[in-house]
Every structure is written in C-alpha cells, then in structure tokens.
Amino acid sequence: MGSNTLHVLKGIDFKVEEGELVAIMGSSGSGKSTLLNIVGMLDLLDEGQYTLDDVVIKDLDETKAARYRNKFLGFIFQSFNLINYKNALENVSLPLYYQGIKRKERQEVALSYLERVGLKDWATHLPSELSGGQKQRVAIARAMAARPKVLLADEPTGALDTTTSYEVMDLIQKINEEGKTILVVTHEEDIAKMCKRIVRLKDGVIVEDKKVNQVLASKYV
Amino acid sequence: MFSLDRWQEIFQTIAKNKLRTFLSGFTVALGIFIFIILFGFGNGLKNTFKEEFLQDATNTLRIFPGKTSKPYKGFKSKKRIEFKNSDLEDIKLNFPFYLQYITPRITRYAVSSYKNESNNYPTQGVAPSHQYFEKTIMMRGRYLNQNDIKNKTKNVVIGRLVALDLFKQEDPLGKYISLSGVAFKVIGIFQDEGGDNEERILFIPYTTRQLLEKSNDKIDQILVSYKPELGIYISEIFEKKLRLFLKNKKSIDPTDSKGIRIRNVGEAAKDNEQFSSVLQYIVTFVGLGTLIAGIIGISNIMVFVVKERTKELGVRKALGATPRSVIAMILQESIFITTLSGSIGMIIAILILNNMGDTLDKFFIRDPYVDISTAIFSTCILIIFGAIAGYIPAKRAASIKPIVALRDE
Q1: Which helix (H) or strand (E) holds A90?
Q2: d(CA B159, CA B136)
Q3: Which residues of A touch B325 (CB under 8 A)?
C-alpha cells in the first residue's frame, strides 16, 4: 500500500489457447500470483497488452473490471473464499445474482453445478459444515456457475492434504476435458504435472514454457 | 430502485448476522429513544414551570404598602404607608382607560373549625373581582358578590382541600364554620390549578374582615388588572402613573423607591417565559448532543461492519459485483436497519412519554410529551447521518481492489 512501486513482472509474453490446462509455477516472489491477478483483472498492468477472447482489456475501471470478471472469469482461491453465512447453494448462485439472473433459475443452475462436483446433498450446508475438499469443490462449482471462458485457480490445493488435492485436481481435469480453459498457479510439482502445459516463472520472466504429458489425477484417487 | 432480489439478499445478510444487526439497530434505537425521552422531559419541566409560575392572570399589578425611606412634606422617613378603601375608589376614578378589575386583599390566618375538625388556614378578605386574579374555579355554590361586600355578610368561600379537611364526606354548602370564633356560612367551594396551597384558602368579604377588626377601613394589598389588549409596554406606563399617583396621594417623595411597591406580574411572567425558553435551549442542546452521540455510534458501527465485511466484499467483487452494487448493498442494509430500529425506538419512547403523565411530578416533570413532527424529524436526521456515515467506509471498501481484500490476514 506504500508509495514504493515494485516491478514484479518484467516482460511476459505468452498465449493460452482455448481448452488448455496451464500450470504456472515458480517460487514465491517469482511473479506468478501477479500474473494471475492481471489475467484475472484483479490487478492492473503498467504496460503491455492483454487480450481475452479477442477483446483487448484496457482502461479498466472497477465497474468495467467487475463486468468482465463476471462474464469471462471464474476464480478458485487457495483459501476458498466462500461467504461463511451463505450455504453451498447460495454461494454457488452468487455470481449468477450479479449476472442478473432470476432467483429460481439461479438456484436450478447452482444446484446442477453442485451436482457436477458431487455435492448436491450438501446444498443447504454452511461452509463451516464442510471439509476442506468439499469447500474447494463448492468454490469450483461457484467459479463455473457463471459459465466463464477461463477458470483461474490460485494454489487451489494449497490448503488441502494430498489425497484431497488429487480429488480436486481430478475435478479440474474433468472440467478441462469438457473444453474449459484453466490456469493453475501452484508451486507443487505433482500438481503441475497434472496439467497439460507448464510455464515456469523466475524473477518476473518466463524461464521455461513446455507442454507435458498429463498425469491423470484419477489414478491416485 | 426496488428489486426483490436485492431485498432478499439484504434480508439474508441481516438474518444471518444477528449480532451485528442487533448492535447497529440497538445503537440507533437507543439514540433516538434517549433523545425523545429527554426532549419530552424538557417539555415536562416547562409544563411544570408554566403551571407553577404562570397560572394566575398575568395582566396584573400587585401594590404593596411599605415604609418610606426619605422624609417628605414634613413627614419623617420610615413612615408606614397604609391603603384605605378610598384608595380603591380613587384608582377606579383616575385610571378608567387602563383599569379592568381591582380588588383589595387582606390576609389573616384563622383557626377554622367545623365540629371536631379544625385547622389553621389563611383567610383572604377580598372583593368579588378577586376571582379573576386567581383564576378561581367554582366547583359548587357561588363566589362572593357585591351584596356580600355591601352588607358585610359572614359568608365564606372555601377551597376544595379545606372542604376535604374539615367536612370529610359531609356536604359543606350551607353549613357554618367557625373562623377564630366567628361563625361563617359556607356559600361556595372552589378549586385552583395552582397547587395544594391555593386550595387551602378561605375567601371572605373584605368589608367583613374590616368589620371584625374594629370597623377600620385598612387594606393590606391592592390587586389591579389592566385591560389585556393594552399589552405589557402600556402596562409599564400604567404602572409608572399609578405609582406617581399613589405617592402623591400618600405624600411620599417621588424619588423614594420604598413606600410603595408595585409588582407587575406580566413583567415577571415575561422573565419566566424567558427562563422557560432558556430551559428549551438547554433541552434542545442536550437533545442535539444525544443525537450526535447516536450518529457517532452508528458511524463507528458502520466502520466496523464494513471492516468485518472487507473480505466478503472482495469475494463479491471477484464474482462480478460492481463498486456501485457494493455501496448500494451496504447502504440499503444500513438504512433499512436504522429506519426500522429508529422507528421502534421512537415509538417506544413516545408510548412511554404518553403513559407517564404525572408520575414524575415529584421531579418537576409534568405531562412530558414530544410532538410527532420533532420525533420524526430527529429520526430522519439520524437515518440520514447513519447513511452518510455508512457511505464513506462503503465507498472505500468498494474501491479496494479485490486482490487486497482477499489477501489472507
């Protein structure tokens, strides 16, 4: 929040095709979260250009950013960021509320996404009544409910144990198989290997960008 | 503006955050409650004040004889001045333009008894017009009349509490009571709104009192009322002329401030009214202070609420909430809570005030009340300032980048 500016990203040039599952790796301070925030329009870029689905993202004020986020992007956070006083169904329907969809339709759509992440029976439970893995699955359902073009996952398994992590990655892989573009920020090698492409960042520049043979998470589950 | 969806969202937030809702609602309700109660008490104080000090006719001059302090026209100083019946006639003759009513008043304490009950009461020897000065209200029977004065009758008009003290359940009308050993016939019972002491008085014709005192024609005190349409300023001229006239008649040095005292009740009433408006200022000031305290209270709570919700607001923004919708949500919620709880506080306070009546009479608070427009106005003020107080932190929260809001603690 101070007046000191810090150049975190020092020239990043990369392109993600539709349907890709990209892992962004790097040690802390490498700029991977900053990159994700810019892609997610949670943060602004100083210079350069960012094009999403042929739309040049520029001159973002908060209102515009909010609309783009709502329309194009779904977020999955390390700490889930579910609203604690809303139950699973209400959390999932929240982005639909901001799209202006009617209540009844919201609930139907939300319930169908909860079903897809296997939590239909938990729809009326509060986040505090769910396990870590269940919370993350609710968060994933929420991210998908708005039918975004891109899913952005910031350390989605960072707060989960290994088994649960693989379950969540299994879900992410399945969503990707259905054609959704997904970016996963992680510093765990095994998680990264479950993606189709790994981009490694160091000190704000890309040091490696390669396609990998995806390890299926379902093997471990 | 009305959107069922948004209201549902707000009701859910309210229902799921009961403590927060209760705290902010309670602050507002308490603020408005205290304000209205205080304001009502202030009005009650004013009521008492008015009744205590302003219940008698105010267009009245009370004239008291005294002792001179300067020698004049061959009389040495410290001469005792006395009024006589002829003074009444002279005043009537000389001031027809100003004069409305005139009555003498001779006050004597007398042991009054009926059967086995007796008590010491003030008796006032007066003329019939005295009824006007004290605003005496006849409950039964009649007041003294000119016939009583002329014939020096032994008739007496007794106060409500005298009747209660001496006669208990009996009907006093037509009965005889003894005043210092002389029998008087009770011809009327009166009440007076000036309090208990004003209802423990007996009125007899002043001429009868003079008859009992060796047929003299001395008067203690003269009450004069001027025509009310003349107003307070003309009354001061009247007062000046009257004083000069009496000093001249009684051979008092015109520059002597003693000798004759005239008390202009109207002027005193004016002072009292000023005091009463000062009282109103104090009440208003205290009330405003309470309101400001309420506003500060609600501001603090709004800051706290927004702080507590920072992360939630960040999540909402990440999910597509515009800054506008974030501000609108917080404001709508706070206005809803302040309006509801403000109204509740207001209604409870008004109900309590209305049911209080004379229960706080001991503390000089009589019939406390607050007029509805003041109550509603102050409630609105609190709501508006509550909204402003909520807007500032809400705007700040809405402009925080979601990434900052979402950062783990």
Answers
A1: helix A88-98
A2: 9
A3: 98
User: Would you place residue B2 in the very low, low, confident or very high pLDDT band (cuts 50, 70, 90)?
Assistant: low
Q: Inspect the interface and report whether the beta carbons of B321 and A98 lie closer than 8 Å.
A: yes
Query: Which residue out of A36, A43, A62, A87 would a mutagenesis test of the B interface target, given it has the greatest number of B Cβ atoms within 10 Å?
Result: A62
The predicted-structure confidence for B9-26, as pLDDT tens digits, reads as follows 888 888 877 887 888 888
- What is the pTM (predicted TM-score) of this model? 0.64
Question: What whole-number distance in Å separates Cα of residue A196 and Cα of residue A23?
Answer: 8
Q: What are the residues whose beta carbons fall under 8 Å from the beta carbon of B70, sequence distance 6 or more? A: B77, B253, B255, B256
| Contact between B318 and A75 using a beta-carbon 8 Å cutoff | yes
Q: What residue ranges in B136-220 does DSSP mark as E strands? A: 137-141, 155-159, 176-179, 182-191, 202-205, 218-219
Sequence-ordered list of residues with C-beta below 8 angstroms from that of A35, at least 6 positions apart, any chain: A9, A12, A24, A185, A201
Instruction: Please determine, for residue A1, whether its predicted confidence score (pLDDT) is greater than 70.
Output: no
d(CA B90, CA B94): 6
The dihedral of CA A53, A58, A59, A63: what is its sign?
A: positive
Q: Is the dihedral of CA B326, B332, B335, B341 positive or negative?
A: negative
* B28 to chain A, closest Cα gap in Å: 24
Q: Which of B16, B17, B318 sits opposite A69 (nearest CB)?
A: B318
How close A80 comes to chain B (CA, Å)?
Answer: 10
Does A112 have pLDDT greater than 90? yes
Instruction: Report long-range pairs for A110-114 (Cβ below 8 Å, ≥24 apart).
Output: A110/A141, A110/A145, A113/A141, A113/A142, A113/A144, A113/A145, A114/A88, A114/A89, A114/A138, A114/A141
Whether the pLDDT of residue A135 is over 90: the answer is: yes
State which amino acid sits at residue A54.
D
In angstroms, what CA-CA distances link B226 with B50, B239, B247? 21, 10, 20
- Among chain A, residues having any CB pair with chain B shorter than 8 Å are 1, 37, 40, 42-43, 62-63, 66-67, 69-71, 75, 77-79, 81-83, 85-86, 90, 94-95, 97-99, 102-103, 142, 146
A95 in Cβ contact with B319 (< 8 Å):
yes
Inter-chain touch A103–B5, beta carbons under 8 Å: yes
Cβ distance A96 to A119 under 8 Å? Answer: no
Specify the amino acid at residue A131: S
The answer to whether A153 and A183 have CB atoms below 8 angstroms apart is yes
Handedness of CA A156, A158, A163, A166 (dihedral sign): positive
Contact B227, B98 (CB under 8 A): yes
